[in-house]
Amino acid sequence: MNILLHTCCGPCALYPLRRLRAAAHTVTGFFFNHNIHPYQEYARRREAAQQMAEGEAMPLMVRDEYDLEGFLANVAAEPEKRCSYCYASRLRAAAAAASEHGFEAFTSSLLYSRYQRHDEIRTLGEQAGREFGVAFFYEDFRTDWQEGIRLSKEMGLYRQQYCGCIYSEKERYAPREKRS
């Protein structure tokens, strides 16, 4: 199967890429992460995705769209719903790209992270797939979390310390008493 892999970052895409290839799928990466903050973090993750793609000989489509204002406009009133918006917007973009470029299916490296909500990602991916007429390929890539970490360190990939948005950055770095 010819699959488009939404790539949130190099380290998280590495293991899913290898697993998909081991199952005889042809994989192309798709980097679209308009939510990452600050811009330097966005650029580092984009570069790590490109480094991983080059090292693994994976074609990578980059939708280089940094849209902090759009992200905040969609989540500022209800920051507790930010992950749902983030998942849906990136999965919709991946589904649209997969449909436009003739892929049989699309999936996401978000499914590698044990910190993401898999049921919600799967539901939103399937909705986006129906909307754009392309299958959403679900697989739980969390099974070899440690192996993915080992591989990404071995490749020398930049490994981020938080999910990506301004809210997750705050949750990661703000002192606990100042987080509310």
From TrEMBL:
A Pfam family of this chain: QueH
TM ranges: none
Domain of life: Bacteria
Biochemical pathway: tRNA modification; tRNA-queuosine biosynthesis
Enzyme Commission number(s) from the entry: 1.17.99.6
UniProt key word Metal-binding: yes
Keywords of the record: 4Fe-4S, Disulfide bond, Iron, Iron-sulfur, Metal-binding, Oxidoreductase, Queuosine biosynthesis, Redox-active center, tRNA processing
Function: Catalyzes the conversion of epoxyqueuosine (oQ) to queuosine (Q), which is a hypermodified base found in the wobble positions of tRNA(Asp), tRNA(Asn), tRNA(His) and tRNA(Tyr).
UniProt similarity note: Belongs to the QueH family.
Name of the protein in its database record: Epoxyqueuosine reductase QueH
Source organism: Oryzomonas rubra
